[in-house]
Amino acid sequence: MNLTERDKLYNWHPYTQHKTANKFPAIVKGKDALLWDENNKEYIDAIASWWVNPFGHSNTVIADAIYKQLTTLEHVLFGGFTHEPAVLLAEKLMEILPSNQKKLFYSDNGSTSVEVAIKVAMQYFYNQNSKRTKIIAFEDAFHGDTFAAMAASGISFFTEAFQGSLLQVDRIPVPTKGNEEKTIQALEELVQTNEYAAFIFEPLVQGAAGMVMYSPEILDKLLTICKQNNVFTIADEVMTGFGKTGKTFASDYLTHNPDMMCLSKALTGGTIPMAITTFTQEIFDGFYDEDTNKALFHGHTFTANPTGCAAALASIELLQTDEIQSSITRINQSHLNFENVIKNHPKVKTTRVLGVIFALEIVTNSEESYYGKLRNKLYDFFIENGVILRPVGNIVYILPPYIISQNQLEKVYQTIEKALELA
Ligand SMILES: *Cc1c(COP(=O)(O)O)cnc(C)c1O
């Protein structure tokens, strides 16, 4: 039996209906933007393995940092102890985060970073004996799969089975072009009740919804409304963080800073699972008290794992190199050129570009569901042609590693162009 067949015996894969799923290629090797399966077939990883991998696979700079840390201090508990990588990483993040972010809390993945943010928002008010227990989020948001993160997520088939067991979240429309006033109105109505602890959002780009984009100007307005009504704002930068939008954080496009930020995915360059939630001093101070009960009783076994911190430090240093910064600019420019070419194609409904993110919507006759027929046809075509892209319904997007070569990127574009014939 090959790896694919052996996998099938025991492994349960994410977001997978195993009864109808195709065979999964078994990837045995990765280098830069490329992956190889056990039959030596080559794939371009055009979505950076779910947006985690900006510096490419098997990056030796990060690998060396990890090896060095593993053989110095692989792990120590963060309850009651600290260590150099956590101190260095905190100092480094303070240099690059929006200036109002003053404290960091470590966890393991994007969902837990959101859990922490939501729990902190709710307990902040609880500590003051005030009752704000509800959350505001966008329609079609995605914030993760654990319970609070799932409650904040608005993509219904992810959460349907659990309705009734979830935190109370009220939704406002996504302020895409033309919908801004509707969103403002909906937010203003909600915040007046004084029942909401926080508004959580994916800043500028809703990833899982299919790279749905809206402007920094409208987000600034929403942040202002929240601020005026004592509702904390949580920028879930799990996808957008570390250069994806062309700036270090999507929040860097804003005039008003969010109160909290969630970071994961590219944080460690796609190597070690780790996440960080960041906070203003005001929020931290809401827990700072003689009273032990006012502390944040949250933690994970691997909180601030030194090896993860070392990987994150190496990743951020890579992100700051001229080479990577100019690659981000090159990819953006090249997306804009492709957009110009493809936007008039009869099968293309809309296109959008921000930073290294490119998305196009294919014209369809019927409503195309998230994991629908066209989506599966497109996905299979891409895999067959050695390009890893995961369309969302009728939306095809590219979010390549920053080190993708121009030739590889051109191949991705050409494959998408060919795929339009399937629609
Ligand atoms: C992926 C993602 C998450 C969840 O992260 P996991 O590591 O998969 O738990 C949360 N928020 C956003 C915006 C994401 O893109």
Topology overview:
Blueprint: H1 3-10, E1 27-31, E2 34-37, E3 42-45, H2 48-51, H3 60-70, H4 84-96, E4 103-107, H5 110-127, E5 134-138, H6 147-152, H7 156-159, E6 169-172, H8 180-191, E7 196-201, E8 205-206, E9 212-213, H9 216-228, E10 232-236, E11 260-263, E12 275-279, H10 281-285, H11 306-319, H12 322-342, E13 348-354, E14 357-362, H13 373-384, E15 387-388, E16 395-398, H14 406-419
Parallel strand pairs: 3-15, 5-6, 5-7, 7-10, 10-11
Antiparallel strand pairs: 1-2, 2-3, 4-12, 8-9, 11-12, 13-14, 14-16
Helix pairs in contact: 3-11, 4-11, 8-9, 12-14
This protein binds pyridoxal-5'-phosphate (PLP).
Structure description:
This protein is α/β, with parallel strands linked by helices and 423 residues long. It has helices at residues 3-10, 48-51, 60-70, 84-96, 110-127, 147-152, 156-159, 180-191, 216-228, 281-285, 306-319, 322-342, 373-384, 406-419, and strands spanning 27-31, 34-37, 42-45, 103-107, 134-138, 169-172, 196-201, 205-206, 212-213, 232-236, 260-263, 275-279, 348-354, 357-362, 387-388, 395-398. The strands form four sheets. Strands 4-12-11-10-7-5-6 form a seven-stranded mixed sheet, sandwiched between helices. A four-stranded mixed sheet has the order 1-2-3-15. The chain has a three-stranded antiparallel sheet with strand order 13-14-16, covered by helices on one side. A hairpin with a 2-residue loop joins strand 13 and strand 14 (357-362). The relative contact order is 0.15. The mean pLDDT is 96. Pyridoxal-5'-phosphate (PLP) binds next to helix 5. The site of pyridoxal-5'-phosphate has 14 residues, from helix 5.
